[in-house]
Write a structure and sequence with these properties.
two-stranded antiparallel sheet, alpha+beta
């Protein structure tokens, strides 16, 4: 199993992962660092701008959910609704990324639904913002456990020596008589 990222809150841990049963990764990652400043026009001899430090860091990324890749698209959309407003620890590649973050929004777009109302695909865009809120020690422990599992389960069996038996190959090989017939007609 390869866990790309986790977000751990009091609700539990959400993962973005790629494994043999499920593909749920993310793209379009962006963040920024900005100086927070205020204008000072009333005091003579002082600088016109007072720098106050950095603004709260925000970040966003997208995840495309595809039913054919083992994701229950509709269930994921419904589940993310309760996570909005939660503060927790975001880890990318097993390491904490930035400060504690609050999930500010989850935007759902590019949804593909079939004629029976089944969700086949959706693009979710997550927006996070730095949060000064203290988080419980149990969340810190849960975040460590979630990423500890990744280290234990990173050994993936290799597909290098996987072969198909001759009988299986013969069974899967389709005989296309129409092509043979056309070729014979061309050679006459």
């Amino acid at each position: 199993m390869s866990i790309i990222a986790t977000f751990t809150t009091e609700l539990g841990t959400k993962t973005w992962e790629v494994n043999s049963r499920k593909v749920n990764d993310f793209t379009d990652f962006s963040t920024s660092f900005e100086v927070e400043a205020e204008d000072n026009s009333s005091v003579e001899g002082s600088p016109l701008t007072n720098e106050r430090g950095l603004k709260k860091q925000s970040l966003s990324f997208s995840s495309t959910l595809v039913a054919q890749l083992g994701v229950d698209v509709r269930a994921e959309i419904e589940d993310w609704k309760q996570w909005v407003g939660q503060t927790g620890i975001l880890k990318i590649g097993g390491e904490t990324f930035g400060p504690n973050y609050m999930l500010k929004s989850v935007k759902i777009g590019s949804v593909q639904i079939d004629t029976k109302g089944r969700f086949h695909m959706a693009k979710l865009t997550f927006s996070f913002e730095e949060n000064d809120e203290e988080i419980d020690d149990s969340i810190v422990e849960a975040a460590e456990e979630a990423n500890g599992q990744d280290a234990e389960e990173t050994e993936v069996p290799s597909a290098v020596n996987v072969t198909c038996s001759t009988a299986e190959k013969a069974k899967r090989k389709a005989k296309n008589l129409a092509v043979k017939y056309d070729i014979r007609r061309l050679t006459y």
